[in-house]
C-alpha cells in the first residue's frame, strides 16, 4: 500500500540514486506484514512503532524484489541496525507519512545511507547539540537557517548509516562535519576524527532533495 505522501517521497528520492540501487516506498498508516523474527525485537514497542517498523520492512522487501533478490526477513540486530540478507546492504527511513527503503548488492555498492525528515526548522537550542561550530558558522550566513540545520541533521544521519556497515562504530553528531552545497544539491560529510577504517579528514559525498514538506538525503559509494 502506497499513499500519496509515500509516492511523493519516492519520486523525490529516485533521481538521487543510480540504477544500481533499488528504492521503494510504503505508507506507515497502512496494513503491512512483518516476519515473526523481525517483530521479536519489538515486543514492548508501541503500536505506532510496530506499524512504522512493519512498513519499513515491507518497503525493504519491495526494493529487494526490484533487485531480483529474495524478499527475506530483515531482523533487527543487537545494535538495532537491520540485518540484511547475505550479499546485500540497505537503508530504511521513515516519517509519520512515508517509509523509504534502498537496497543494493554488495558487489556493486560499498556504502549506502538514506534519511528522510520533515522540512521544518530545527529548534535553535538543538543546533548547539547537533551542529559543530563550523556548521553553525555556515548556518549564520544562510536564509532559513533552521531549515538548513534540519538538512545538516538529515545528512549526518544519512552518513552515519552509510559508514556504520564498515566501522560498526557508534559515533556522535560531532564526529562528522556536513557542508551542504545548495547549488548542486549535494553535501560533503567529513570525518572529524579517526573512525576505522575511516581516517580524520576523509570525506564522503551525498545528495539531497527537498519537496512536499520533506528533506531526503542519500549517500551511495560504489564498490
TrEMBL record:
<dbReference type="Pfam" id="PF17837">
    <property type="entry name" value="4PPT_N"/>
</dbReference>
<comment type="similarity">
    <text>Belongs to the P-Pant transferase superfamily. EntD family.</text>
</comment>
<comment type="subunit">
    <text>EntB, EntD, EntE, and EntF form a multienzyme complex called enterobactin synthase.</text>
</comment>
<keyword id="KW-0732">Signal</keyword>
<dbReference type="InterPro" id="IPR008278">
    <property type="entry name" value="4-PPantetheinyl_Trfase_dom"/>
</dbReference>
<protein>
    <recommendedName>
        <fullName>Enterobactin synthase component D</fullName>
    </recommendedName>
</protein>
<dbReference type="InterPro" id="IPR003542">
    <property type="entry name" value="Enbac_synth_compD-like"/>
</dbReference>
<dbReference type="GO" id="GO:0016740">
    <property type="term" value="F:transferase activity"/>
</dbReference>
<dbReference type="InterPro" id="IPR037143">
    <property type="entry name" value="4-PPantetheinyl_Trfase_dom_sf"/>
</dbReference>
<keyword id="KW-0259">Enterobactin biosynthesis</keyword>
<comment type="pathway">
    <text>Siderophore biosynthesis; enterobactin biosynthesis.</text>
</comment>
<dbReference type="InterPro" id="IPR041354">
    <property type="entry name" value="4PPT_N"/>
</dbReference>
<comment type="function">
    <text>Involved in the biosynthesis of the siderophore enterobactin (enterochelin), which is a macrocyclic trimeric lactone of N-(2,3-dihydroxybenzoyl)-serine. The serine trilactone serves as a scaffolding for the three catechol functionalities that provide hexadentate coordination for the tightly ligated iron(2+) atoms.</text>
</comment>
<keyword id="KW-0808">Transferase</keyword>
<feature type="domain" description="4'-phosphopantetheinyl transferase N-terminal">
    <location>
        <begin position="39"/>
        <end position="104"/>
    </location>
</feature>
<feature type="signal peptide">
    <location>
        <begin position="1"/>
        <end position="24"/>
    </location>
</feature>
<dbReference type="Pfam" id="PF01648">
    <property type="entry name" value="ACPS"/>
</dbReference>
<feature type="domain" description="4'-phosphopantetheinyl transferase">
    <location>
        <begin position="112"/>
        <end position="195"/>
    </location>
</feature>
Amino acid at each position: 500500500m502506497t499513499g500519496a505522501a509515500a509516492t511523493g517521497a519516492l519520486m523525490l528520492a529516485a533521481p538521487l540514486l543510480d540504477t544500481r540501487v533499488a528504492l521503494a516506498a510504503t505508507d506507515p498508516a497502512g496494513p503491512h506484514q512483518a516476519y515473526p523474527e523481525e517483530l521479536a525485537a519489538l515486543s514492548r514497542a508501541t503500536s505506532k512503532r510496530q506499524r512504522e517498523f512493519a512498513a519499513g520492512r515491507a518497503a525493504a522487501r519491495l526494493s529487494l524484489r526490484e533487485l531480483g533478490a529474495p524478499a527475506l526477513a530483515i531482523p533487527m540486530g543487537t545494535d538495532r541496525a537491520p540485518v540484511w540478507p547475505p550479499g546485500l546492504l540497505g537503508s530504511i527511513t521513515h516519517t509519520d507519512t512515508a517509509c523509504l527503503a534502498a537496497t543494493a548488492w554488495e558487489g556493486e555498492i560499498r556504502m549506502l545511507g538514506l534519511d528522510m525528515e520533515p522540512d521544518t526548522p530545527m529548534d535553535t537550542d538543538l543546533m548547539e547539540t547537533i551542529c559543530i561550530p563550523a556548521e553553525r558558522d555556515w548556518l549564520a550566513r544562510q536564509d532559513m537557517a533552521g531549515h538548513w540545520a534540519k538538512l545538516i541533521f538529515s545528512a549526518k544521519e544519512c552518513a552515519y548509516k552509510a559508514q556504520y556497515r564498515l566501522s560498526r562504530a557508534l559515533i556522535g553528531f560531532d564526529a562528522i562535519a556536513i557542508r551542504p552545497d545548495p547549488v548542486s544539491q549535494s553535501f560533503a560529510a567529513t570525518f572529524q576524527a579517526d573512525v576505522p577504517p575511516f581516517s580524520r579528514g576523509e570525506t564522503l559525498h551525498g545528495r539531497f532533495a527537498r519537496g512536499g514538506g520533506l528533506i531526503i538525503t542519500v549517500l551511495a559509494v560504489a564498490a
